[in-house]
Amino acid sequence: MSVKIAPSILAADFANLQKEVEMLNTSSADYIHVDIMDGMFVPNISFGLPVTEAIHRHAAKLLDVHLMILDPDRYLPAFRKAGAEVLTVHIEACNHLHRTVQYIKDLGAKAGVALNPHTPVAALENILDDLDLVCLMSVNPGFGGQKFIQGTYDKIRKLRQMVNERGLSTMIEIDGGVNQTNAPLLMEAGADVLVAGSFVFTSPDPIHTIKNLKGL
Ligand SMILES: O=C(CO)[C@@H](O)[C@H](O)COP(=O)(O)O
After folding, report:
1. What's the ipTM?
2. Of residues 30, 35, 132, 192, which has the active-site annotation?
3. How far apart are CA 161 and CA 97, in angstroms?
């Protein structure tokens, strides 16, 4: 099975958001990755609920919502209502992660947990069995267009081993600095989903770029 691609809408032309979403609808993308930044957990503010709801209104793809916000429990029902199919919270932003993950599931969404580059995959030891997705950040979160951190490969291999040993179907998602050069290596290391922002949206033909990233 080919890797899933989740173009990050953060890199889209916000002045033509409907057009950008419609373009993704015609592509082989599997999800639309929606980056929510609060200016507190990460040093940037992106957009929030009304924009997510507007993306959902035009999207034929599932929304993979990445909450880079402190105390995300406050907003989980609202983002679910706005169209999130996957809700991913940061391990570094949750005091009671197990409760947060159950809350996401109770809302009927798939539960994801993201790890910053400095956080070891061993931190997932007691929560992994409950997760639908783990997002390994391959850049420090907050901005698109950053350089891929090489140490990510080792984290993917370790996590792939944990997932396989437990017989889980938890997806491994890689987020940040993904491009045509590292995509095959990320797949080989064990990634299931690749988030790609600037590489897709700054390319002359995003539909073709998405197809290439998938290895089709
Ligand atoms: O969450 C983030 C950044 O915090 C990512 O989703 C980026 O938006 C990916 O963008 P590129 O690195 O592919 O440009």
Report:
1. 0.98
2. 35
3. 22
pLDDT tens sequence across 27-79: 999 999 999 999 999 999 999 999 999 999 999 999 999 999 999 999 999 99
Side-chain half-sphere CA neighbours of 110 within 13 A: 16
Q: Name the residue ranges covered by the structural domains of the chain.
A: 5-9+13-213
pLDDT in tens, 144-170: 999 999 999 999 999 999 999 999 999
User: Do the beta carbons of residue 78 and residue 50 sit within 8 Å?
Assistant: no
Answer for the pair 133, 170: CB distance below 8 angstroms, yes or no.
Answer: yes
If you classify domain 5-9+13-213 with CATH, what class do you get? alpha beta
Structure tokens, 184: 């095959």
Whole-structure pTM over 0.95, yes or no? yes
| CA-closest residue to ligand 1 atom 1 | 141
Catalytic one of 30, 64, 175, 192? 175
